[in-house]
Amino acid sequence: MTPDALREATTLLAGAILSDHQSVQHVIGIANGGVAPARMIASTLGVKARTVHARHNTGDATYQQATGKVTLDLDPLIRALNGQRMKGRVLVVDDICGSGATLRRLQHDLAPLLSPSAQLLTAVLCLNTGATTLPDYSVWTVSDWVVFPWEKPPADQDTTPLPRPEEVLCHA
Q: Could you give the C-alpha distances from 28 to 31, 38, 107, in angstroms and in order?
């Protein structure tokens, strides 16, 4: 994915979300890969981006098989909320939805931090064809490894850039 494609995709996501929901009060990026797109979307929406840490792979090297076990660190978000629950629309952003395990786990673990009337939305840049849990919004559907602008491409692999983003897919 090129930096230009990333900018275009986050602009499209922000526009689609605003078109469907008029406003978002909170944006949460899943570290590592969801942080940059979350910040870009939050900036477009005029809200602050927060971060939660999730680990689904055993390391950061490319082509690693996901373990199926997701660990989360919500402590920075909990501290930032200072005992308050999030109200309104809460958008969770990640770079890719591989299986859906990270989104499922986060939806479950964020529930106690949401007010009863809060609405949780999810958006990813890329949706893997094998995902069993779908985000609310995605831009590209992929079936191979994606190298994002913040990652170093593997030296022994030729990479083909994703096509320009043209639309947002709504899975809700």
A: 9, 6, 12
Other Cβ atoms within 10 Å of 55 Cβ, number: 16
CA 171 vs CA 9, 122, 139, 149: distances in Å: 16, 10, 11, 25
Q: Give yes or no for a contact between 58 and 85, defined as CB atoms under 8 angstroms apart.
A: no
Give me 110's structure tokens. 């964020």
DSSP line for 92-115:
EEEEEESSSHHHHHHHHHHGGGB-
Q: What is the pLDDT of residue 57?
A: 59
Tell me what pLDDT residue 157 has: 66
CA dist., res. 162 & res. 141, Å (int): 10
- Its sign, for the CA torsion 80, 83, 88, 91, is positive
| Burial classification of residue 59, based on how many CB atoms lie within 10 Å of its CB (0-12 exposed, 13-18 middle, 19 or more buried) | exposed
Hey, how many other C-beta atoms are within 10 angstroms of the C-beta on 25?
15
Which two three-digit tokens encode residue 90? 């809460």
Query: Residue 27 carries which DSSP code?
Result: E
Cβ atoms of 111 and 97 within 8 Å: the answer is no
What's the pLDDT at 58? Answer: 55
Q: How confident is the model over 44-64, as pLDDT tens digits?
A: 999 999 999 887 755 545 545
